[in-house]
Amino acid sequence: MDTPSRLSSLLLLSAVLSFLSACAREPEPSPDYFSWTNPVTGAVVHMPEGWRQSPETASKGETTVGYFTPNFASMMGNYGKVTLHYEDMRKISGPMTLQKFVGNFIGYMRSQTDHLSEPIFELHNGIPHARLSVEISHKNRQFLLRARFWTQNGRDYWYAIAESPIEDGDFAETATPLIEELQASTMAIE
Which residues does the chain have with pLDDT short of 70? Predict the structure, then answer.
């Protein structure tokens, strides 16, 4: 066999082996956009109708553990998202209360906002909650953030933020079933 045909045979054999090797590997599992596992509690949330999670985006925030959008929102040019945040307060010195936690959030947001509502504190099913609204400008657009805070044990603090353009004031109500599911997933923590 002459050298050019031998080289062709070796290249063909190498290509076949590479192909077979690629076939033998298990394919990367594609993300499940319609169920989400709470990374803190391990509870699985099946997305309510019309919602999906975005695992790639959730890891971008320091406290963000989940990032959720309506199905097809980006394809239709709509904006609205829900983020779930978690903070473990076991490592801080001194006691933390929901009022103090929300006060810290307000202090952080105050310089960035156009309007900040007073927080409303309440008990819901025996669990302390707080709600507030924030109006904020970003790149010549105004956004409305509706935040819900809660803690079950005074050590693990959670908050969900429904963010939408200010003209889409109904978005927070649309997001309520999702936020309820997300909150239920946080209750499994000891």
Answer: 1-29, 59, 74-77, 189-190
Amino acid residing at 182? L
pTM, two decimal places: 0.81
Amino acid (one-letter) located at 86: Y
- Indicate the length of the chain as a whole number: 190
Interatomic CA distance for residues 56 and 77, integer angstroms = 19
What is the pLDDT at residue 31?
A: 75
Distances in Å between the Cα of 78 and the Cα atoms of 67, 70, 144, 174 are 16, 9, 14, 14
Residue 45 CB partners (closer than 8 Å, separation 6+): 35, 36, 37, 38, 181, 182, 184, 185
> Is the four-CA dihedral 186, 170, 34, 52 of positive or negative sign?
negative
Residue 40 CB contacts under 8 Å (≥ 6 apart), including other chains: 65, 86, 156, 186, 189
Quote helix, strand, coil % in the chain, to nearest 5.
30, 35, 35
Within its chain, how far is the Cα of 22 from the centroid? 33
